[in-house]
Amino acid sequence: TPEQAARMKKLQEQEKRQKVEFRKRMEQEVSQFIQATGEPRRRFQPMNKIERSILHDVAEVAGLTSFSFGDDEESRYVMVFKKEFAPSDEELEAYRRGEEWDPARAEERRRLRELAAQQEEAELECGPAPPGPPNDYKDKYRHLIGSDAAKAAARTMEANKAYGCVPVANKRDTRSIEEAMNEIRAKKRLRQAEDD
């Protein structure tokens, strides 16, 4: 209907006017921020997606760096940084976690990481750590079999000849691997010659 179309057009014009007014307001705030000498960054109030995109555009035109932070749509906000105070990755991570950036704490963390890396490097240079005290396997099972049984078992322990390596005496085939492979190859060649 014509009334709905007129109402829609009026709403669109009003929305467009609001965006233009918002952009002007942001341009003023950004220019104030640029002129403020003691302010390396500025945090803006949470705003919707369209307003954030307008603010990002204004910041880019002004030659500033801007980022959005916050988890949900209602609490997302924009932070604008002067180029010479562009944030480090650590600073950005702190804002993403919702923490305030504390350069002193970050420097302390960096120092601790450096110290840990140096210690690790020193440990690697020294070689592996000496092994712990020798462990007697009987002590491990003493609670199950008692100390007398463990000693008796240790005395009578011998390798099971039916398990593991086959003694040379039991081998029927005394050829080496090379001899066996050469024999297989010779048989293959013979078979191919017969087929041809």
From TrEMBL:
Pfam families: R3H (PF01424)
InterPro entries xrefs: R3H_dom, R3H_dom_sf, R3H_sperm-antigen, SPAG7
GO-annotated molecular function: nucleic acid binding
Domain R3H: 20-83
Signal peptide: none
Family annotation (SUPFAM superfamilies): R3H domain
Domain of life of the native organism: Eukaryota
Annotated region (Disordered), positions in chain: 117-139
Protein name per Swiss-Prot or TrEMBL: SPAG7 protein
Source lineage: Eukaryota, Metazoa, Chordata, Craniata, Vertebrata
